[in-house]
Design brief:
Strand content: 15-25%
Largest sheet: 7 strands, mixed
Helix content: 40-55%
Number of strands: 12
Order of helices and strands: EEHEHEHEHEHEEEHHHHHHHHEEEH
Strand order of the largest sheet: 1-2-9-6-5-3-4
Radius of gyration: 20 Å
CATH topology of the largest domain: Dehydroquinate synthase-like, alpha domain
Shape: globular
Number of domains: 2
Structural class: alpha/beta
Length: about 400
């Protein structure tokens, strides 16, 4: 099956880039990187983690060397807790010691943590150098590798220190998902459900139908199937195409936009998700798992505010459940979650912006000035009791 190519066209021409989706593409990394970077690039630093690099590092390095690059690599520890300014500073030091110049590049080989941190370090090193995304988790394939949001976590919240820095290209090799643990698959599909919910019934239906036929717990059984690989690549390409469309129309997430084309709608489910991650010190949930709960909470809050119907809530519950089991909320303190809402990056003019639904494919942006605090408190209390 030939790889699919998608292009993001952004108002600033230098930010345009291509996204390639297909099976067994890592062997082509060198040719792809050279096409993206041009003849001027001579050095590349791969940012990855030990687990991913052990699986795909040797092949990636060999392909880049064959294309004429001088290659070195910097490995970070796994997990959101290590997506920090301390790790970013260590990466910057390594870039300098490796002699990276303005014409060289960084390759992010890994999941969302690797991509966010590598992109942020590339954005601030020498005031910005090129970087390429090679996502190795489902979540990073359909979400964080596309769109140019980079950043690190801090004690005062998730991704509050960051920069917009578009990659020069994204290479999505679906074959790497065969080594992904089930929790990571579930996390990725929760993000896919989120995008389906705000996109419309076509993408949500495609996602739900795929999960019905190919449940994550049985993924390893399907790896030799051409039908499975074709359907998986089609789904990922559709998910990426949706996000690319939103990003192209609102690259920097304009603060004054509140329409359905605003990039803010991609934060559907993330208000609760980021709060859950913060109160558990980024060590309990996979990001997508927290988003799974965030989707369901946002839907139930939307229903309680008479924005969407019960059938929409039931549909989202059904599709999220197809994605797999989520960690229990038994030890989550509702008061701490409400407090964590204050540190969400979607705060503007003293009010938190929440993405809710008027129905599938009908996202709306509401502020906490529009929503009685007691309504949020009651909805959260009911929700946490329900998911113990």
């Amino acid at each position: 099956m030939n790889p699919q190519s998608l292009k993001i066209k952004i108002a600033r021409e230098m930010s345009d880039y291509e996204i390639v989706v297909g099976n067994d593409l890592i062997a082509t990394t060198g040719k792809w990187a050279r096409k993206c970077l041009g003849k001027g690039a001579t050095k590349i630093v791969i940012v990855s983690n030990a687990t991913v690099f052990k699986l795909y590092g040797k092949q990636t390095v060999a392909s880049l060397i064959m294309a004429g690059f001088e290659v070195s690599y910097f490995l970070i520890k796994d997990g959101e807790a290590h997506k920090s300014l301390k790790t970013a500073e260590a990466a910057l030091k390594f870039f300098a010691e490796s002699g990276l110049s303005r014409t060289d590049a960084v390759v992010a080989l890994g999941g969302g943590v690797v991509g966010d941190l590598a992109g942020f370090a590339a954005a601030i090193y020498l005031r910005g150098i090129s970087f390429l995304q090679m996502p190795t988790t489902l979540l990073s394939m359909i979400d964080s590798s596309v769109g140019g949001k980079t950043g690190v976590n801090s004690v005062f919240g998730k991704n509050l220190t960051g920069a917009f820095h578009q990659p020069r290209g994204v290479l999505i090799d679906t074959s790497v998902l065969k080594t992904l643990p089930q929790r990571e698959l579930t996390a990725g599909f929760c993000e896919a459900v989120k995008q389906g919910a705000i996109s419309g019934k076509t993408l949500l239906g495609q996602t739900g139908d795929f999960l019905a036929v190919f449940p994550p717990r049985k993924f390893r059984q399907f790896n030799g199937s051409e039908k499975f690989q074709a359907r998986l690549s089609e789904l990922i390409a559709a998910q990426v195409a949706f996000k690319a469309k939103i990003v192209a129309g609102d690259e920097r997430e304009s603060s004054d936009r509140k329409d359905a084309g605003s990039r803010k709608i991609l934060n559907f489910g993330h208000t609760l998700a980021h709060a859950l991650e913060k109160v558990t010190d980024y060590r309990y949930f996979k990001h997508g798992e927290a988003v799974g709960y965030g989707i369901l909470f946002a839907a139930e809050l939307s229903n309680s505010l008479a924005l969407c119907g019960e059938k929409d809530v039931e549909l989202l519950n059904d599709v999220v459940h197809r994605a797999g089991s989520l960690p229990t909320l038994a030890n989550i303190d509702g008061k701490q979650v409400l407090e964590a809402f204050k540190f969400d990056k979607k705060h503007l003019s003293g009010s938190l912006q929440m993405i809710l639904l008027k129905g599938i494919g009908k996202p709306v942006i509401r502020t906490t000035k529009d929503i009685p605090r007691i309504s949020i408190q009651k909805a959260l209390k009911r929700f946490l009791q329900k998911w113990v």
